[in-house]
Amino acid sequence: MLNQRIKIKALLQQASIGTHVTVMGWVRTFRNNQFIALNDGSTNYNLQVVVALGMLPEATLKRITTGASLKVQGTIAESLGKGQSIELLATAIDILGDSDPEKYPLQPKKHSLEFLREIAHLRFRTNTFGAVFRIRHSLAFAVHQFFNERGFLYLHTPIITASDAEGAGEMFRVTTLPFDGTPRNEDGTVNFKEDFFGKSTNLTVSGQLEGELGAMAFSEIYTFGPTFRAENSNTTRHLAEFWMIEPEMAFYDLEDNMNLAEAFIQYLIRYVMAHNSDDLQLLDRRLAEEEKQKPANERSELGLLDKLNFVVNNQFERITYTEAIQILLESPAYKKKKFKYEVSWGIDMQSEHERYLVEKHFKKPVIVTGYPAAIKAFYMRMNDVCEPGKETVAAMDILAPGIGEIVGGSQREERLDVLQKRMEAMHIPVEEMSWYIDTRRFGTVPHAGFGLGFERMVQFVTGMTNIRDVIPFARTPKNCSF
Ligand code: ATP
Ligand code: MN
Questions:
Q1: Which overall architecture, per CATH, does domain 125-170+205-469 show?
Q2: Which of 58, 83, 204, 252 is 20 to 30 Å from 432 at the Cα level?
Q3: Least confident stretch, 253-267, 285-299, 334-348, 461-475
């Protein structure tokens, strides 16, 4: 049996001096033919393994190289060296796997994030990515814990869907039809009756519509799964495949929805602060270094830990879309013509506008409500009082410093007649969607929900600026490696 080892995290936390243990891991560095820094991914701290002089033949010492994997047995001793309190005095070392130092791409020095992206299959072995992915794990775990504590049901919504009604983004087609000799109808269009599902199908852009069906029986549900958008935009915030958390709650109005979303985000941050403080400190130092490279006026005012502390200890700002536009129109940035895109009531705010609001004006997360109906999806609830031409819906977006939109949500339109009219006006195929409209026919209730982009949340908590660096293997335009 191999698995009688102790993980390095547990060893550093609880092992007592003099005990005999077995550890396994990968070599980070080997100094003076004597000191091995060994890491097994359980923590960003390495275990110092001490090799007694003369203990190993020269040929074996040569094989202890960066990246090689080892099984080490030894005795825990107090460390005399700086930087660690205990170390392992090796009594036996087995090399499990060699790593040719001429070929191993990770050297014990600082590599750029761009370079590490090209070797994403190895980047988990670096301090930065070790920390990022341990935090990603903690966040995923905390998502389930948060909802479970509140009695929400985890609903698995389908990945393959036939509805193209959501309109949240461009979709990837799912088909088994051949490219050559595609079956055609008489009018030349593709005959999807011949396709696997007998109709045109896609990868899901959101689980919301199915989530609503669940909420109409279980009261409160959430989904947490992969989502796909053929976004042909190369930004630091968009992936073609990302993970989304979508709670959907019966008997909630917009304010209940905002309260839940705010509590949720704060809970996730608190969880990571309580369980990943070592990793956060490492990323806090990394970000401080990165910020130092920037011109003074582009640096953020708060470090990572300060920012997270601030967010859990302060309420989010809540403003209406109309107020947001007003603030933008009165801003020095607008007056000095600093915005690339126009500002007027009715625009879909661009990321420069959102960033101005959160980073310059409020300096904290902002919840914007009451967006123009014309720029939002059909299922959002129409607000009652509005001037003609200025119809708004009960939508809410949460904007976060450094990220922009992190949550998009709304109270849903529960009134059958209003929903049907809106769907017709927006050319949504009402017949095909009759399963969705049934929820409004049979026991409709006020309800609400939102979507939190999981990677954007990981970005926010880790301070990583590029979304490609918070998902193990990013899928973006013209890039699908690993
Ligand atoms: P954006 O304006 O940033 O493109 P959106 O309005 O398309 O976002 P929604 O459809 O409301 O976003 O999706 C809900 C959440 O999913 C967003 O708030 C965001 O956190 C996340 N999200 C949306 N698109 C992507 C993407 N391509 N990659 C990663 N996360 C995304
Ligand atoms: Mn989008």
A1: 2-Layer Sandwich (3.30)
A2: 252
A3: 285-299
